[in-house]
């Protein structure tokens, strides 16, 4: 479990991005962190992995504080940055150098994932294309078997078949002891993978809810006319009518459209707070 | 069973796209029901595991779990601890009952509306229905 206790963070003490953020992230779920450019998504991830420290308050991951950077903590977490860096090493050299830091690293899975992602095994890693390098890092990260896996825009740079392969890999490695935390604005790439959604804007946590809870409270559909007797979170004109997100008064079980949800929540933060109070 | 039909339906089902409006877990439940109605999965048999179906459909395993819970509540599948999920003996009747209800509630009104708007009399539809069954299902041992 990851806990933020009254965390405040800013790149300067005078201008805080996050103020008194308190939240819990539970094992066994794939979290999707959504936010506009510059909303503070990567900042949040870096506070979790210990490359940035909170100005006030704390983060704890399974009882440990990232900022003390103890090996016992670092071996339980893997962070894939948006822009990956790989040195001029072969895959084998890379594995020999970095895998020993992760006691649960599984070599067979590593090569299986590389094969599934179609990453060629010859030559130096820095000669690979950006997409290939990214897939290499993803395969390595998954093979490390850490309890916490943080990914910043993991589908950026992946071609279409690789995105599907990535989803299959994530489905195959997910289990109830793991936290997979994905920050993205490519919502469609991961729409059916995420089961908990967090939306941040200007350092505010606007939504932190499960897909099931959202579907219970909101109904996503296309209508001929916008209903007048219920709360409307979002409406967008489409070819076949108007796509709306309305209060789910009839108990319909509709599929979420995360793009529309994101727009609705960021445009109507007050209504969002009423519908989904942040505990 | 006519083998070409078996292959055609199987192909179509594996390539099933998610429909726009229905919750994903219900669409997964529907996929399972479809396999049962098409007799691709037999009563008493073990079905695909939660993880494998999640990988196949590129969805969160928790969503497949929710679909399987839903089917279990309706006594269509059963969980044998540590072994996996199995098709209940009376699954087909249960699926037919459940799907009939769904069809009458959600699909028939759309059909009726279009029949009315396009001025298609029920007799005409009945004739076409008969032809469709002859063309598509005649050589299969589909009951009723």
UniProtKB/TrEMBL annotation, chain A:
**What InterPro entries would the database entry show?**
AAA+_ATPase, ABC_transporter-like_ATP-bd, ABC_Transporter_VariousFunc, P-loop_NTPase
Q: Name one GO molecular function term.
A: ATP binding
Q: Which Gene3D superfamilies match?
A: P-loop containing nucleotide triphosphate hydrolases
Enumerate the UniProt keywords alphabetically. ATP-binding, Nucleotide-binding, Transport
Which Pfam families does this entry report, sorted A to Z? ABC_tran (PF00005)
ABC transporter domain location is 2-227
**Cited SUPFAM superfamilies:** P-loop containing nucleoside triphosphate hydrolases
Put simply, this protein is called ABC transporter ATP-binding protein
Q: Which organism is it from?
A: Mucilaginibacter psychrotolerans
């Amino acid at each position: 479990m990851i806990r933020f206790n009254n965390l405040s963070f800013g790149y300067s003490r005078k201008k805080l991005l996050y103020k008194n953020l308190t939240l819990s992230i539970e094992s066994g779920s794939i979290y999707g962190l959504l936010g506009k450019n510059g909303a503070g998504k990567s900042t949040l991830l870096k506070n979790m992995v210990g490359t940035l420290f909170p100005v006030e308050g704390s983060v704890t991951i399974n009882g440990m504080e990232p900022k003390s950077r103890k090996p016992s903590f670092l071996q339980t977490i893997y962070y894939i940055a948006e822009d990956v860096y790989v040195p001029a090493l072969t895959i084998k050299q890379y594995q020999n150098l970095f895998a020993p830091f992760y006691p649960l690293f599984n070599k067979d899975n590593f090569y299986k994932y590389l094969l599934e992602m179609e990453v060629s095994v010859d030559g130096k890693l820095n000669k690979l294309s950006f997409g290939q390098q990214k897939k290499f890092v993803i395969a390595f990260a998954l093979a490390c078997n850490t309890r916490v896996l943080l990914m910043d825009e993991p589908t950026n740079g992946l071609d279409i078949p690789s995105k599907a392969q990535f989803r299959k890999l994530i489905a195959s490695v997910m289990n109830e002891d793991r936290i997979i935390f994905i920050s993205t604005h490519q919502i469609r790439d991961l729409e059916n993978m995420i089961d908990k959604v967090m939306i941040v804007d200007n350092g505010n946590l606007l939504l932190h809810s499960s897909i099931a809870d959202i579907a219970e409270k909101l109904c996503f559909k296309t209508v001929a006319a916008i209903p007048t007797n219920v709360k409307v979170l979002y409406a967008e004109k489409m070819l076949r009518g108007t796509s709306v997100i309305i209060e789910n008064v009839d108990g319909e079980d509709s599929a979420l459209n995360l793009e529309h949800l994101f727009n609705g929540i960021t445009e109507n933060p007050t209504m969002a707070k009423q519908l989904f109070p942040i505990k | 069973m006519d083998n070409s039909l078996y292959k055609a339906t199987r192909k179509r089902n594996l390539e099933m796209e998610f429909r726009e409006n229905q919750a994903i877990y219900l669409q997964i439940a529907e996929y399972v029901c479809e396999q049962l109605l098409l007799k691709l999965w037999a009563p008493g048999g073990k079905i695909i595991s939660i993880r494998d179906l999640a990988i196949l459909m590129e969805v969160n395993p928790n969503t497949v779990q929710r679909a399987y819970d839903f089917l279990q509540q309706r006594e269509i599948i059963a969980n044998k601890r540590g072994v996996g999920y199995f098709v209940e003996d009376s699954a087909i009747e249960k699926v037919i009952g459940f799907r009939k209800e769904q069809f009458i509630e959600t699909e028939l009104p759309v059909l009726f509306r279009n029949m009315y708007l396009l001025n298609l009399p029920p007799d005409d539809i009945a004739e076409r229905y008969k032809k469709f069954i002859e063309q598509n299902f005649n050589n299969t041992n589909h009951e009723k």
